[in-house]
Amino acid sequence: MTMPVMEPDLDATTLERWARFIDEGPFSSLCWGERIAFDNPDCLTLLGALAAWTRRVRLVTTVVVPQLHDPVLLAKALATADLLCEGRLTVGLGVGGRHEDYRAVGADPRTQTMRAMADRVAVMKRVWAGEKVTDSVLPVGPRPVQPGGPPLLVGTTGPKTVRSAASWAVGLAGTTLDLDLAKQRELFDVARRAWAEAGRGAPHLATSFWFAIGEGDAPRAQVHAHLRRYLNWIPAEYVDAMAPTTGWAGTADQLVETLRAFQDIGADEIHLIPTSSDIDQLRIAAEVAEQFG
């Protein structure tokens, strides 16, 4: 389950309530993403709070963009978080989809490439291995609880990106806009082949989609409103054209059917993305998730 970090008018009480509910429920992972030029909470600051608010569930960033950070400082922050959550951290990494986030922090949009991301991953792994990356008296710590650092997932929807990450990632933290099972199966197959060719074993296969649960037209209207807010860098008329087929909207029983269809093509996890901070959406999703225990 993804935290409602992109919803308006959030406060600490809402975030803690969601985190504790997710931790106490049937979910395998608690997820949240990064965005800079938006009014969502800072990804790494929230990570510290989530480590304190939870005890069981795996914490998964979906995704952090390394090019927006100094890689040594990012490695130190993530190692600290791994310490605080006692080794429950998984880090999803991606190049990001918005130049405005790069410009907001003074990063070069020309580094929005897989090569630039891989270079930063290499630095982070050196830090987590205890190597001195500069001429310092001591290496940059703390050492993460998980040997070698938290497992890394690649956030992507493209085959080329998947193949390029096989050398450093343990799997995918993808997303699907239209829930096209054939395309998702094809991407999973690309990942399986790439990981096998790299001698990495079977990849962890996860994808995500926006959801709204309810009866009648209300769920689709909820997804549409969310897309209008979240996809604010895209002209509104384009978002309106996308909205009828983007994300998932329907009843709890229909969500069960959808999740079983993704399970049938080999998905290890689905990261559900809420389109409302209404805790009732989380409660219903938990009832659905219990059927996959």
UniProtKB/TrEMBL annotation:
Keywords: Flavoprotein, FMN, Monooxygenase, Oxidoreductase. This is Luciferase-like monooxygenase family protein. Signal peptide: none annotated. The keyword Flavoprotein applies. InterPro entries: Luciferase-like_dom, Luciferase-like_sf, SsuD_RutA_monooxygenase. Residues 13-259 form the Luciferase-like domain. GO terms for biological process: alkanesulfonate catabolic process. Pfam families: Bac_luciferase. One of its GO terms (molecular function) is alkanesulfonate monooxygenase activity. SUPFAM superfamilies: Bacterial luciferase-like (SSF51679).
